[in-house]
Amino acid sequence: MNAPSTPPHQPDPHDPWRAPPSGPHLAPGALAAPTVAERRAELVQGAVTALLLTVVGIGLGLLWLWLAPRVPLVSDDTAVYLKDSEGEEAIGADGTFVLLALGFGLLSAAAVFLLRRRGGIPLVVGLALGGLLGSLVAWRVGTWLGPTSDVVAHAKEVGKGVVFDAPLELRAVGAAILAWPIAAMIVHLLLTWVFGPRDPEPDWGAFWGAGPAQGSGGLPESEDVPGPGAGDGSGGGWPRKS
After folding, report:
1. Contact assessment for residue 74 and residue 152, using Cβ atoms and an 8 Å cutoff
2. What is the DSSP letter of 214?
3. Is the pLDDT of residue 8 over 70?
4. Confidence of residue 155 (pLDDT cuts 50, 70, 90)
5. N or C: more exposed end of the chain, with fewer CB within 10 A?
C-alpha cells in the first residue's frame, strides 16, 4: 500500500479549503505600516493646516463685518430702543456668519484635499481644529472692528433721536462657531470617499500558496487518482467501464 503523499499532521498545501497562514507574512498587495517619519510628517501637516485656517479666520471676520445687517438703535436721553422693533437684523447677523462659515468650510476642505489627497487622521483633526479656531478669530475680529459695545456712551455721543448701529453680536454662538469645522469635515470625507486613492486589492495567491495548474474552480486539474491496490502489482484500482 502506498504511503500518503502528505505527511501526517501537516495540511495539504494545495487544499483550497485550508485557512490562510498566520504570521507576519503579508501579501504583495498589502500596505506597509507607516514609518515614524511619515507619522511625523502627517502631524506637521495637520498643525500647519490648523495654523493657516486660524489666520484665514481674519478674512471671515472682515466679510461678516461687511455683509452682516446692522441693528438700528435710537435714544431719547432716558433709554435706548430699537428703531424697528419688528426688524430681523439681529437674526440676520447670525445667519450671515453661519452661511459664510459654511462656505469657508467647503473651500478649506477642497483646498486641503487637493493639496493632500491621501488624507489621514492628523490632517482631518487639523482641518477641524483650524476651522474652530478660525471661527473664534472671525467672531472676535467682527465684534472688535464693529460698532462699540458701550451702547450708553454711544447714545450720549450721537445725541437724542439720532439713529446709530448696535454692536455686532452672535446670539447662537455654538451653532455659528461649529458651522465651519463640521462643514469642512463632511466635505473632506465626501471628497476622499469619491475621489480619494483606493487601497490595492490583496494578492490571495500569496495566502493560498502556488500550486500546480488549477481549473476555474480552484481545484487541481483532473488527473488519475489511484484506487485501492494501485502500485502493488495486483492490477487493482477503481473499477472502470469497458
Report:
1. no
2. B
3. no
4. confident
5. C
**Residue 94: inside a domain, yes or no?**
yes
Query: Which range has highest mean pLDDT (6-20, 93-107, 115-129, 223-237)?
Result: 93-107
Strand order in the sheet with 80-82: 80-82, 72-75, 164-165
What is the extent of the structural domain holding 175?
A: 55-195
CA angle 33, 37, 55 (to 5 degrees): 115
The pTM assigned to this predicted structure is: 0.66
Residue 43 covered by a domain: no
> Can you point out the beta strands (E) in 65-157?
72-75, 80-82
Which is more confidently placed, 183 or 13? 183
The lowest-confidence range among 34-43, 114-123, 226-235 is: 226-235
Q: Is residue 72 part of a domain?
A: yes
203/216 Cα distance (integer angstroms): 17
Domain count, the chain: 1
Contacts of 104 (CB under 8 A, 6+ apart): 56, 60, 131, 134, 180
In a domain, 25, yes or no: no
| C-alpha pair distances (Å), 237 with each of 6, 220, 221, 222 | 20, 21, 20, 17
Looking up cell 510628517 gives 41
12 vs 148: CA distance, rounded Å: 84
- Spatial neighbors of 96 by CB under 8 A, at least 6 apart, are 64, 67, 68, 69
Which of 99 and 193 is assigned the larger pLDDT? 99
